[in-house]
Amino acid sequence: MNVPQSPRTQPEAGLALRRLPAVEKLLESPEFAPEIARYSRPLVTQAARYVLAGLRDKIREDKKSPSVADVVRLIKEHISGEWPGFISPVINGTGVILHTNLGRAPLSKKALEAVSNLGGQYCNLETDLGGGGRGTRVLELRRLLAVIAGAEDAVAVNNNAAAMLLVLVALAHGKEAVVSRGELVQIGGGFRVPEIMEQSGVVLREVGATNRTSLHDYERAVNDKTALILKVHRSNFVQKGFVSDVSISELSNLARKRNLPLVYDLGSGVVLDTAEFGLEHEPTVQETLRIGADVVCFSGDKLLGGPQAGIVAGKIKLIQPLLNHPLMRVIRLDKLSAVALEATVKSYLDKTAVEDIPVWRMMSATAAELQTRARAIVRKLKAKNISAQAIKGDSMVGGGTLPEQSLPTVLVSIKPEGSLEAFSRRLRLSDPPLVARVENDLLLIDMRTVFPEQDKLLVSVIASALARKD
Ligand SMILES: *Cc1c(COP(=O)(O)O)cnc(C)c1O
């Protein structure tokens, strides 16, 4: 009987399959040295196995065996295309100062020095050096935070989402929190106020309408199950038109009358006056507490410009239950973040924040400074026969802060000959990667978020991405 051969055993395919190089052999090639150095041998082996498995399937179909050079190229392409790589520095040409996808706030030199000084040594994190016994974690940090916030007490946890959760759990578990329907916001990837409230076991008492909430709405909702009044900064969007909401001072009066705490999730928590940087005035942490919020919480890595952290500041009698709550242990701030936050806050207290903290340095960069740098870059590109221009544009602050507000900036604009999308992808896959904007058929690099010390590197990244043709 004539049994049809399965593709696996077809002789031509078998031969072609045997011609495929072995993984071990492939990895001995110096071609893979950069990948192995960057990703480690086991990971490159994994990539090679994956690509070879795909090739085997293909060979069974078309019986053609690729050359070793092709196999090497395919594995390299797989690695560079599929692997984002370990966390590594990126040149931010987007102009978005707080780019959540690019790690939000870069740390100040002082914060970095503090981290590198402390990280490799033992420290007095939980030791009372005077008494010799166990001490309280980061007491000094609490003091520093309280001073910049103008609060009686403060505490820092892992991030602001955790801070909100802690506040709700510790102050309102099993009870109700009154919130305006206009403030049930979603922030970036997955922080939704109603969902956090559900997780915290607090009953969400929604009041008002999406666009309008009045004091009366809050008054009517307060009952003997109410544990707190919550206000949430809309952060990443604005409402316009037929809108109204209730001010902190009005809410504070109501809270006082009913003997309830007023909690404000500020989101970004700015401590400097944004009006001095050409933006609208954003209520500061200090102001908000002064006007009548009893507790505020905000992020460490948004406009504060520090490490990822969530800071809660306010009345001692409301901070104390947070410190004693078991959840505190779960979401506590790591020592490296604590020391970076300490150094960041110290810059504010020393009044050197605008010089020290990259976020504020970038916010305060003038169009003239940016113009000078952009022109120098354009000149260097022209010397390499790359045509580019310095043009005016706008930068966004980002990170879910100050939506619809921008800062005048200067952009380096490039119009590549081939596909703009492909050029922008090559830049993103460069070493170091450059993330830029693509607008109106142009590749735009906003000088505001490029560190001046990266200007030279920027030129070489652009030049080599233009020279590469893949
Ligand atoms: C950003 C933001 C958060 C989340 O803060 P993370 O530090 O990212 O956890 C929570 N609430 C508001 C209003 C925010 O803007």
What does this structure look like?
40% of the residues are buried. The protein is 43% helix and 17% strand. α11 links the parallel β7 and β8. The protein has 20 helices and 15 strands. It has helices at residues 11-19, 23-28, 33-39, 41-62, 68-82, 109-119, 139-149, 160-172, 193-199, 215-221, 248-257, 285-291, 316-323, 327-330, 335-349, 353-356, 358-364, 367-383, 420-428, 455-467, and strands at residues 91-92, 153-157, 176-180, 186-187, 191-192, 203-207, 226-232, 262-267, 295-299, 310-314, 388-398, 401-414, 434-435, 437-439, 442-446. It folds into 3 domains: 11-82, no CATH class; 91-103 and 360-467, Alpha-Beta Complex (Aspartate Aminotransferase, domain 1), CATH 3.90.1150.180; 109-356, Aspartate Aminotransferase, domain 2. It is α/β, with parallel strands linked by helices and 470 residues long. It has a 7-stranded mixed β-sheet with strand order 2-10-9-8-7-3-6, sandwiched between helices. The structure holds pyridoxal-5'-phosphate. Residues 159-161, 164, 187, 191, 232-233, 235, 265, 267-268, 299, 310, 400 line the site of pyridoxal-5'-phosphate.
Give the SSE map.
Layout: H1 11-19, H2 23-28, H3 33-39, H4 41-62, H5 68-82, E1 91-92, H6 109-119, H7 139-149, E2 153-157, H8 160-172, E3 176-180, E4 186-187, E5 191-192, H9 193-199, E6 203-207, H10 215-221, E7 226-232, H11 248-257, E8 262-267, H12 285-291, E9 295-299, E10 310-314, H13 316-323, H14 327-330, H15 335-349, H16 353-356, H17 358-364, H18 367-383, E11 388-398, E12 401-414, H19 420-428, E13 434-435, E14 437-439, E15 442-446, H20 455-467
Parallel strand pairs: 1-13, 3-6, 3-7, 7-8, 8-9
Antiparallel strand pairs: 2-10, 4-5, 9-10, 11-12, 12-15, 14-15
